[in-house]
Amino acid sequence: MNPGRQRGFTLIEVLVALVIVAIALGAGIKAAGALTDNAERLARVTAGQWCAENRLTALRLSKLPPELGEQPFGCEQLGQQFAGVLRASPTPNPLFRRVDAEVRDAQGLPVITVSTIIGQF
């Protein structure tokens, strides 16, 4: 060792280390934001699916064949308002009808569509 030389980090080394830490923190914040967005989307889709399934179950329990065409409906799940449309269409077998429940959020953006076949009793 050189007795006249001091030990430690140079300014360049410290700046490079700070740049590396800043990049890592930026990537971490971006990843955390993406996880938050995905969790919110999952909650919205799950609540929308509950709305659609509830409406289709009510239709099955009514024991009446669904009328052809569109029927609007509203729903609230997890404190969120949803608007939906039931679309009943014929199938090749006249004893069955296809029913699509399309659910949209309060802004009118599509959330989920659930489809099923309902037989006439």
TrEMBL record:
Record's comment on post-translational modification: Cleaved by prepilin peptidase.
Protein location: Cell inner membrane
Membrane topology: Single-pass membrane protein
Residue ranges of every copy of the Type II secretion system protein GspI C-terminal domain listed in the record: 42-118
Keywords of this entry: Cell inner membrane, Cell membrane, Membrane, Methylation, Transmembrane, Transmembrane helix
Keyword Repeat: no
UniProt entry tagged with the keyword Transmembrane helix: yes
InterPro entries in UniProt: N_methyl_site, Pilin-like, T2SS_GspI_C, T2SS_protein-GspI
Database matches in Gene3D superfamilies: GSPII I/J protein-like
Alphabetized SUPFAM superfamilies for the sequence: Pili subunits (SSF54523)
Major subcellular location class: membrane
Domain of life: Bacteria
Its biological purpose: Component of the type II secretion system required for the energy-dependent secretion of extracellular factors such as proteases and toxins from the periplasm.
Known partners and oligomeric status: Type II secretion is composed of four main components: the outer membrane complex, the inner membrane complex, the cytoplasmic secretion ATPase and the periplasm-spanning pseudopilus.
Family: Belongs to the GSP I family.
Protein's recorded name: Type II secretion system protein I
Gene giving rise to this polypeptide: gspI
